[in-house]
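Human: I hope this is not a bother. Would you mind checking the protein record under this note? Thank you for your patience.
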Amino acid sequence: MAEQLNNRLCSFRLDRTKANALLPGKRPAHTLNSYMVFQDGQLLLVGGTPGADDQPQTNLQILHNILDLQMDPQAAIEAPRWSHQPGTPPRHQVPEKLRVEDGIGDEVIAGLRKRGHDIFESERLSFGAANVILRDPETGTLMGGADPRKGCYAVGS
């Protein structure tokens, strides 16, 4: 029986003796994720991204941009990104590298190289995709952001 159910469940195992076995009551590790953020018991934002190994990395960067840097959803999504590759097994078959989009900054890239990272520079808006809806806690107004990397749109009424 095949161990790989589809290309995003590559870590799930059908062998019952493995730690990441697909069994009732277990929660095998995977990167299929979206998120909801609550503030004072009220929904603040929802978001997610397709994108294979970039999913958790993209979500982390967007949450940081919105929550820590106070960017609006669209600015948070359009900000330059980085991605450590490969993100999921089999890591031994692919050399590790850190992809960075144009706009990260030459000083940051030089510092990463000095620390031993193998940097691959990508064109601006070249990888990942994300969508976010942010709810203003005071007014309830919804603001959307959609990733131009994949031709997404935020539409409201």
